[in-house]
Predict the structure.
Amino acid sequence: MEDIDLRKFLQLVDENYNVNDLAQIITAYSMAEDLHKGQYRQSGEPYIVHPLNVAYSLAEMHADCDTVCAGLLHDTLEDTDITKEEIEREFNKDVADLVDGVTKISGMNFSSKEQQNIANTSKILNSITEDIRIIIIKLADRLHNMRTLQYKSVFKQKENALETLELFAPLANYIGAYRIQNELEDLSLSYLRPDDYKILKEFRDEIKQENKEYLEKMRDSISETLKYHHIDTEIKIRAKNVYSIYRRLQKNIQEGISEESLDNQFKNIHDLLVLRVMVEDVQDCYQALFLIHSKYRPLDSKFKDYICNPKSNYYRSLHTTVFGENERLVQTQIRTFDMDKIASFGLTAYWDIYRGNARISMQNQIREKSIVYRSLQEISSIFGESQEFIDTVKKEVFPNQSVSIYTPTGKILKLPEGSTPIDYAYSIKDELGDKYEQAVVNNKEVPIDYQLKENDRVKIITSEDSKGPSEDWVESANTTVAKKKILENLTLKNKKLLPNN
Ligand code: MN
């Protein structure tokens, strides 16, 4: 990791922000530097290095000016004498609220007090609905803390790495910031399982090196074809992050195919090395897809169109795995430059591209109809601020093992592994569950306890005459939200049957 200094930061801001923004950001920097004067990090560096790095990551993510300023000031409310009102006066309400929001989730970074951790984690999760930029600043904060974790005790290292893996990496995925998710995951693994990390990284880098020439040849050949057809393109060679490889091998152990040599297991990871083809617009994406398929036969089962069916975190791209020379499988990802920006940095990049009130309307959408919001509310109403709340959220809202399914309108939804049609129904809205009549998966009727599989197309048929939730539905439900809704409904029914007393 290269060192970030003020000059570099200002250079980045100068390139990506307008003159007014630049002035605001410089003001925020001077203020933070003044306030943190005399404070030092455990590395021995002046404290300002930390907020500077956080702000740098935010500027890299194309976060708005208020967010970058709040990044510079994020530790001032907690560690210095300044007040929220003073920040508001100097900047505006948004900056003050953001710094305040981040501060309220304070102390959690390196705290071991269990109760405090629980409270803080709950606050992080709840700020998804308040202002998701709070989470984005927290992510940049955690990224720098993870990059400088070597100065902490071994115990703290493991504790923070685990929390990063279980909470912050899924949050990065939730906002679509894959570049940050990948880095957080790899940093965490390198502290949690240093030996595994080292072996896998070396192995991956070796394979990357071995295939370098082959992939460069393929890249140049695709590039030439596209340019011949007047498509401007830039093609990069990318390797999967170490943590994804680790997870894949873990899965192999579960499925009992870990007996194969590491070499063979690596060979079977079809997207270990990826050619990322970036072009100007959507039309070029499909044109490029056609040209690539004309050159290299595709493996049908691996084709994915995330442009027509974006992921819920706004990820868009075409994925196609093709037979390269010597029958070797290579995944290519085709997307526009804008889509690539969004895939790297997530929502901040999305807002930067679509401007206007894209951010505000998205925040409203999260509040009004996002499944994540709905689940968070329901789970929090059952467990309150407790370890169960956090465990359930980790397991069911940001699941490690999940299946992606298609709604009748082609939207892709992620549900925890083991979910059934009734879980799906209640994750969308009460009515779909309460009036559940029949589930249809891939055009076939399935029982209520059917376990949903990857890429299933799910449709729930409702009816006014539906008998509604019954005792045995509880058994068919896998998620806390569905169970809760069914039980509520049963209680309500029983109340209606009983005379008033
Ligand atoms: Mn911090």
Remarks:
- The pocket of manganese (II) ion is lined by residues 50, 74-75, 141 (CB under 6 Å).
- Confidence is low (pLDDT under 50) at residues 107-112.
